[in-house]
Design a protein that fits this description.
Number of helices of chain B: 10
CATH topology of the largest domain in chain B: Rossmann fold
Number of domains of chain B: 2
Largest interface: A-B, 40 and 45 residues
Radius of gyration of chain A: 33 Å
Strand order of the largest sheet of chain B: 6-7-8-3-9-10
Largest sheet of chain B: 6 strands, mixed
CATH superfamily of the largest domain in chain B: P-loop containing nucleotide triphosphate hydrolases
Largest sheet of chain A: 4 strands, mixed
CATH architecture of the largest domain in chain B: 3-Layer(aba) Sandwich
Oligomer: heterodimer
Strand content of chain B: 25-35%
Distance between the termini of chain A: 35 Å
Order of helices and strands of chain A: HHHEHEHEEHHHHHHHHHHHH
Strand content of chain A: 5-15%
Radius of gyration of chain B: 25 Å
Structural class of chain B: alpha/beta
Strand order of the largest sheet of chain A: 2-1-3-4
Number of strands of chain A: 4
Helix content of chain B: 25-40%
Chain lengths: 409, 300
């Protein structure tokens, strides 16, 4: 049979066939290229570094300010003023409001006022014939005023009680007010801030890497290189490589930002809450990956429907709108909307971690929500692949989704 | 051996490619000629799996071609294109890897071809910074660097200057010399005539002629040219008398030159005898049709 003979001749004349790299899987090659190209993109690298600097800088400023506000220089004059100030320092540290207090003596009230006025001291305490005066330049910290009032009051009470032949304890018996906090560790403000920051990160990263996928697809279409790619790589693997490459990049970038943020937090006054933030960060990352993966193939479709990169302006707004709505519902949704949202794919990427952060969700809820998102992602991948296949070779003009479904592959 | 069987593609109601059977021999250069819209590109795209055939199939070594086979083919699409903003060697390595090479082998082969094309010092420049001719060289390097098992090249000569045409012709012969089938399309019939072993002529989506170039030349009737000179009697030489020689079909007579078909077996002897009797013979030769003539004949 001539075919058999031909085959042998061909093989004999052929150079020995180079070993295939890894069976039939080509998507890792596509994925690695996608990542390498992005890492070689100066805009991406500079943007990431600038963001890192902003995070580190913001946290550094926070640490600097909170450290500085603990340094208090007090200048005192008059009998007992130095003792009062030192006791204020002790009381503050007992109340976990540690101040680094320096106490300087001044000869008289005028010297105290002068020291505060020209900034040599943050606060002044004067005891003279008119009684006690706490001196500040433009304002006084309420906590400082409260501590000084308390210490001076206690001392006066004790002295007066002694002259009246009784004790301070006897005089104030039954009249003390004990502050009681029902939920001292709820960190409401911190939780709101963390939720907001993560939601915003999701929004920015989703759109940025989504646009990267769409751009990467349309560039291959616009430059016609796609014809060579399609002849060598099954479309499914081409799409998978692209999507996975960008999901990994997005995840890596988020982990980097969050990691630097957490390390930086250790140097601020929020150091004690790192555990809380780290736990919710882990949930946000998991849901980010799921939510982003759910849309990734659709970003590729948005790219394949375009003919030139300019067309992306008209093929991507649907996706950016979906992500924006998800962010708003995720941040501001309350009650039923928030619970429902935490199960709707993409919206859940923000809503569910928010609920977890607030402690509203049972242990199985994030898992159930993830399952819904994964199922949705599988569906978008199937639909996305089909649309991508139909539109990627269509070079005439920009396609609508309905048209793409009609194109013969 | 690369074959197509009954390959057909419809765009709407229009039959762009209609029942095309082509065989591309290993070790040979097969030229694919036909006018614009004849279906060459559509056929090549179906061979490469970029377009689904409406009917028919592509066979590789006797079996229906799979993408793993195609991944080892070298392909140069009609619409050229690589990544304009990526460095030259970087994308060659990527293409090599997609075609089954290891990263190291792809890098080596990419560098070798860039050197061969005089582009070694541009390896790290972006593709768009190269001239169009050099971009085309990179493109062909991408098609052949992986030592493909078959080559499908759509208009590889278009846009090349004469020197580059020669270099490309050498490269194609060299590739065929490795024992792989090479199919390329071209508008330039003289070029195809010069370098091809086999020819497929496509018109309106159908194969109108196929085979070895030599066979095609002699497929029609063989014509001869006779040129006579006047005899000792002098006067104007005129070959008009050939019309009266039996066993000879005359195509054209123009003064001393006649184009004729020798129908009877002994017609040539008879013609010569008669010519010598009347004067002298300057030429009796077989007319080899040019490819353009064959093309015009088969596509008419």
């Amino acid at each position: 049979m001539s075919a058999a003979i031909t085959t042998r001749t061909t093989t004999d004349l052929d150079a020995p066939e180079a070993p295939r790299t890894s069976g039939q899987a080509v998507w890792p090659i596509v994925m690695v290229r996608e990542i390498v190209v992005k890492l070689r993109d100066r805009n991406f690298v500079v943007g990431t570094l600038v963001t890192l600097l902003l995070i580190a800088g913001g946290l550094g400023l926070q640490a600097f300010l909170s450290g500085k506000s603990n340094d208090v220089t007090a200048v005192v004059s008059g009998e007992g003023a130095r003792q009062v100030m030192q006791q204020v320092g002790q009381t503050a540290s007992q109340r976990e409001d540690a101040v680094n207090l320096t106490v300087d003596d001044a000869p008289d009230a005028a010297a105290v006022e002068a020291a505060v006025r020209d900034g040599r001291a943050d606060v002044g305490l004067v005891h003279d014939a008119d009684g006690w005066r706490l001196v500040g330049k433009t304002d006084l910290k309420p906590s400082m005023t409260a501590y000084v009032t308390e210490v001076v009051g206690d001392r006066t009470l004790a002295a007066n009680a002694q002259s009246a032949g009784t004790t301070a304890a006897a005089l104030t018996a039954g009249g003390t007010v004990t502050p009681q906090l029902l939920d001292p560790d709820s960190n409401e403000g911190l939780k709101t801030a963390v939720g907001f920051i993560f939601s915003f990160l999701f929004y920015v990263a989703s759109i940025m890497f989504g646009m990267t996928i769409a751009t990467s697809v349309v560039e291959e279409k616009q430059s016609r290189v796609v014809e060579i790619l399609v002849s060598a790589v099954p479309l499914r693997q081409l799409l998978a490589g692209k999507v996975l490459g960008n999901v990994l990049l997005a995840l890596a970038q988020m982990v980097l930002f969050v990691g630097v943020g957490l390390v930086g937090m250790a140097f601020t006054s929020y150091a004690a809450q790192i555990g809380l933030v780290a736990a919710s960060a882990a949930w946000f990352l998991v849901f980010f990956v799921a939510g982003f993966a759910a849309l990734a193939c659709l970003w590729a479709v948005a790219g394949s429907l375009a003919t030139r990169s300019e067309d992306l302006q008209s093929t991507t707004p649907v996706l950016t709108t979906v992500i924006m709505v998800a962010m708003f519902v995720g941040i501001f949704g309350e009650g039923v909307l928030r619970v429902v949202g935490s199960y709707v794919p993409v919206v859940s990427a923000i809503s569910m971690p928010q609920r977890l952060l607030a402690g509203e969700a049972a242990w199985w809820e994030p898992l159930a929500s993830l399952l819904v998102t994964v199922a949705f992602a599988a569906w978008t991948m199937v639909v996305g692949e089909r649309l991508y296949k139909r539109s990627i070779m269509h070079t005439g003009r920009r396609l609508g989704v309905r048209e793409a479904l009609k194109v013969d592959a | 051996m690369l074959e197509t069987r009954g390959l057909t593609r419809l765009f709407g109601d229009q039959r762009a490619v209609d029942d095309v059977n082509v065989t591309v021999r290993p070790g040979g250069l097969t030229g694919f000629v036909g006018g614009n819209g004849a279906g060459k590109t559509t056929t090549m795209r179906m061979i490469m799996g970029i377009l689904e055939p409406t009917a028919g199939e592509v066979l590789w070594r006797g079996r229906p071609v799979a993408w793993e086979d195609r991944a080892r083919f070298g392909y140069m699409p009609e619409e050229r294109g690589l990544y304009p903003k990526q460095p030259v060697l970087f994308q060659l390595v990527y293409l090599g890897r997609l075609h089954g090479m290891t990263a190291a082998a792809a890098r080596r082969a990419g560098q070798e071809y860039l050197e061969r094309f005089g582009l070694a010092d541009r390896a790290n420049d972006t593709l768009e910074s190269l001239s169009l001719g050099n971009q085309q060289r990179v493109q062909i390097a991408g098609a052949v660097m992986s030592s493909p098992t078959a080559l499908i090249l759509d208009e590889p000569f278009s846009g090349l200057d004469p020197d580059a045409v020669d270099a490309m012709a050498d490269l194609l012969r060299e590739q065929a010399g490795r024992g792989v089938p090479v199919l390329f399309s071209s508008h330039q019939l003289d070029l195809v005539e010069r370098i091809c072993d086999d020819l497929v002529v496509l018109a309106a989506g159908r194969v109108v002629a196929e085979g070895k170039v030599e066979d095609l030349r002699h497929r029609g009737r063989t014509l001869h040219r006779l040129v006579v000179a006047s005899g000792p009697a002098g006067g104007t030489a005129d070959a008009g008398w050939v019309r009266d020689v039996p066993g000879v079909a005359v195509v054209d007579v123009d003064g001393p030159v006649a184009v004729l078909e020798l129908v009877a077996a002994d017609a040539s002897d008879r013609i010569l005898r008669e010519a010598l009797r009347r004067g002298s013979v300057r030429e009796l030769s077989t007319l080899v049709p040019s490819l353009s003539e064959i093309y015009r004949e088969v596509t008419a």
